[in-house]
Amino acid sequence: MRTKKRRPTNLQPEEVAGGCCGACLLDLIDATENELLDQNAELLIHKPELCNHLYHKNCLIQWFERDTSCPQCRIRVDMIEEYLGKGEYVRSAKVLPVFLEDVLEEEEEEEEEEEEEEDGHSLVGGRIARTPGRTGGKSQEGGRPEEGGRRRERGRPRRRDSIRRRRDEERRELDEALLSKIRKETERMRERLAQERCRELREQAAILARTDPLLVRVSIVNSLRRLPYNLQREQSQVFVPTRKPASARPARPSFIKLTPAKYEKDFLASEQL
């Protein structure tokens, strides 16, 4: 008989706030700060999409293989089905990576809030007296910074800035690569459309060349105006038909050489007769 794994629903808030995984109850960060900052620590910690409980990535993936809700708050998580072929599907939950700098910033903010609550105000003889922590971290007696201010100065802002700077550079490189790819695709699409338009003009020229060369020239010039400027000169030289010399042209009836107005006048005169 298959036994179900016990769900850690009896976790205390201070256990999670202290850096424990909500599934395996081990530390979220089980390495030294230097080793953790040297590697890509962005994918070590994950959380479900609809809540803020932190887990190890592997623990969260294994949990959602057999369940569809958060182990702590029991909120239901949307599942994604992927088709593998041959009627097989794989279900995975929507989880989000938690960046290491965000975790460190939350911890430091909590420490700073606790220090401000301790150093901010103190009750002396029933009155509220301001302590040196509110006056820039200097004591009234010696004028030197306190331990809390010294701890803030040599904290982790430089390391957090290096992580943030490296992540911004990676995002900028990805944006530049994506933008160059979009530009190349756009240029390729324009060339393809211009080639298709040129082929259509060739077909139109072949059809109209059997009727009247003047009509061919007018229609092609109007069509070339809709092409890009760099292709107008090239295609106009290709499409506009050249008139053959008089010796090579076959003999035509005399009425074709008449102008339209004179031809129409002669035609009406013949109709009246």
Automatic annotation (TrEMBL):
Residues 21-74 form the RING-type domain. Residues 151-165 have a biased composition (Basic residues). Keywords: Metal-binding, Zinc, Zinc-finger. One of its GO terms (molecular function) is zinc ion binding. It comes from the Eukaryota. Residues 141-150 have a biased composition (Basic and acidic residues). Residues 104-119 have a biased composition (Acidic residues). InterPro entries: Znf_RING (IPR001841), Znf_RING/FYVE/PHD (IPR013083). Residues 104-167 are annotated as: Disordered. The keyword Calcium does not apply. This is RING finger protein.
